[in-house]
Design a protein that fits this description.
With 214 residues, the chain is of the alpha/beta class. It has two domains: 129 residues, Rossmann fold, CATH 3.40.50; 78 residues, Rossmann fold (3-Layer(aba) Sandwich). 53% of the residues lie in helices and 14% in strands. The chain contains ten helices and six strands, in the order βαβαβαβαβαβααααα. It has a six-stranded parallel β-sheet, with helices on both faces. α7 packs across α9 and α8 packs across α9. The chain is elongated. GO terms for molecular function: DNA binding.
Length: 214
Amino acid sequence: MRVVVADDAVLFREGLSRVLTEAGFDVVARVGDAQALLDAVRDDPPDCAVVDIRMPPTHTTEGLDAARALATSHPSTGVLVLSAHVEPHYALQLIEDGARGAGYLLKERVSDLDELTEAVRRVAAGGLVIDPSVVAELVGRRRARNPLDDLTHRERDVLALMAEGRSNQAVCERLHLSPKTVEAYVRGVFTKLGLHQDADDNRRVLAVLAHLRG
């Protein structure tokens, strides 16, 4: 799988590139700003671009803006945005702009090789990835009448994994439950939250996040 890495911090960029290479990915370009990223993808489109959300010149949302531009110009290239902070509004903006091949992950997750490589592969395959910390913050938001209160502890666990973009099979593996048990929990979550159950993983992530955003 071919990957482009974009981060203005040289040590982080080189370290991330090395980790991905050792994990079996082909890092075809390493760049330090958003324009260089756009140029690299235009010249030789990769399967996935791993992008820092803050890059020169203003160090605000250049990476996010580039990700949104790539969703339009190169929809077959997945984009995984890395951030040092939990910023749900940016994560939701990224996911809403592109219903496939997009992800938002905290930089601290990079130290977990399995988590990182799984996220890159899922995004490259057209899936959606949301960092668990973002999901936790959204789940924790309170409303006057919060239907989340009706969920059991296990249903909350299932909901959190669904919102991260994980399939029923992945939920089974994470929670060590049978497929039928997970299907029952998923039905319960959708029923209690008043959401339409959809077999498409990306659509159900969007539905769940729209509800959590309130």
